[in-house]
Amino acid sequence: MKKASSRSLQFGTDWTYAPAPESSAHIQFNERYGLFINGRFQAPSTSRYFASINPATEKEIARVAEAGSSDVDKAVRAARTAYEKVWSKLSPSERGKYLFRIARLIQENARELAIIESMDGGKPIRESRDIDIPLVAAHFFYYAGWADKLQFAFPGRSASPIGVAAQVIPWNFPLLMAAWKIAPALACGNTVVLKPAETTSLTALKLAEILQEADLPPGVVNIVTGAGATGAALVSHPGVDKVAFTGSTEVGKHIMRSIAGSGKKYTLELGGKAANILFEDCAVDQAVEGIINGIFFNQGHVCCAGSRLLVQEGIAKDVLRKLKDRISTLIVGDPLDKNTDIGAINSKAQLQKIKTLVNAGIREGGECWQSECEIPSKGFWFKPTLFTGVAQSHRIVQEEIFGPVLAVQTFRTPEEAVEKANNTPYGLSGGVWTDKGSKIFKMTSRIRAGVMWANTYNKFDPASPFGGYKESGVGREGGLHGLYPYVNLS
Amino acid sequence: MATRKSTAAPRTESRIDVRKTYKLYIDGKFPRTESGRLMPVRNKKGEILANVCKASKKDLRDSVVSNRKAQEAWAARSAYNKGQILYRIAETLESRRAQFEQQLVNQGLAQASAISEVSAAIDLLVYYAGWTDKYIQVFSSVNPVESAHFNFSFPEPVGIAVVIAPHAPGLLGLVALTAPLVAGGNTCTVLTSEHFPLTAIDFAEALAASDVPAGVINVLTGKRDDLLATAGSHMDINAIAHVDLSADQRKALELQAAGNVKRMIDFNGGELLSPYAILQAQEIKTTWHPVSF
Q1: Which parts of A172-312 fold into alpha helices (H)?
Q2: N or C: lower Cβ tally within 10 Å for chain A?
Q3: A245 shares contact with chain B (CB less than 8 Å)
């Protein structure tokens, strides 16, 4: 670490961490992975395989099949057959037992899955090990229990499955998003065709192996890998009854258009530009930790990231100083190192997008400050960054950056904070920091967002519904409310 | 211009009757359409009953501005108060039911159907008046998260909805789509039935007399096809509720609705009396707070 300046915290000059890498020597990858259709891996009709690389090293880890439209068709048919012949006929408690089984197998394989997640996607092992994978297992466990209790979830109504669900997931929480999609769908009696993001297919394919080990009936879950074209073929396939998508608002709108008039049900978890709001009466040191967790968790590749900091004027100077001090201590580097705070940017394309928006922020007159931390020479990295002097109209205040970049604004009154917080097309999440209970409730009710964190940030749980208002999406995932997207009520 | 048929109840007295001018209902006022365009409403015999305003795109946009202005305050009213206001609409309709029955008959409905439709509309309002302080309890949850946090979820109104009232039943359709939205704290603009616009404006007068705040329910008469595209593409409309759109209309609307991820609420096949109708125009908000000393 660099010698601290006189205005920084004085940790001394030899405040360094020895490398503490998690070993990946025992992780075995196939040279290439086929598509998981009807319970077995098979070659794609396209005969094409694409490389999945480690974004921290730019080295190829494995090759993954590119599903063409005939593969998608095959997968949807397999899901349909499994739905009609097996899954919808199985008793709900038996369905649940499969899900419990899957949850247990994920726990057993947790370490391996965490390492693969970090290798394939670039996230710090601390997060994949302590957050992503435990939540994956918990999510299956939670929905497993719902399978035979659905009659208690919807007062006055009885629930029946919808049919075949097409599920397209992003690269920021690869296996966790797969769990969020698959677990409730299966619990409610649907079958699934899942399309992972092209940069992070590997844990989904490992999950396929787990599903085989769990003896899940063939065709109940099918996994087709590929890029945008594969996803488009899947959601617009006429044999699909329901579409579930997590990703950008832009692609979400595209999906809405592609299924317009089809009568397909859909849930969309889209982008966000959350305001994290600090009042003068907050516990500043805790709030600073909350800001760090809000924007730098998972390199800022988080739809609900607290990417806008709104800080009340009286404490703005103090907060900024503490924030910069804290950011300066963040370690950016090897995702497999247990000391790493910020891992690799998921892809070259995403890195480019972050740079473009940061440059736009500078061009529009924002003042850019970056940590002076060192970053590796190979791989995709971006230093933790914050902007001050930005206006509500600036692109970096309005647009989702999906990277470790924080836009800082100030406010004087709660009204102003609400106004600024709500002044984007998004409405996914938000944060409020204050010591006053009544202010918490007033703020959290006036901010138009689906998830509000008060005196905390970026917490997730399978029992807790998640999803957005406005252009941040439609529907909820997680909790009792996460059952609605996967049932017809009568 | 053809001669006009009186819309008043038949009487024997010989007198020049005072005819009503039908206007739009926006923000608690009765303005004419800014376009100045009219369309005649005829009875089954083809006689003109009245002219109604053919609302324009600009009227719709003005209406949405008024809905937005009213929404937060409407949602912030206590559930008890919202329930009382809905009940008040029912009271007002009940006291004017002869007028509504007559107007439905004028527009072509049989007497018996008119009577049962007005009764159903009134009873439906009473039903939703009773839900305003209950649906939140039914659809909320306290979520047992693993970490030391208090976590709860509850429904909040989606915001502004456009109601595309069905062509029939003229009064009941309008009320059935509007009541669950408004009971849930939303404000809305109703595009009325093209066949029964007169009862819709009569209904607006009942709203004006029932303590419904300005902008909570606006009523636009006119041609559905003139306004669908504007409703679909408007960036400050959060939801569109409909029940009898053609497949083509529905597809066109859904294509446009993607522009700001509008919630498309299809009441077709749903029950008229159900808290799930309210839930359709709600967002679920989840709040976390640490539990500690």
Answers
A1: 174-187, 202-213, 228-235, 249-258, 284-296
A2: C
A3: no
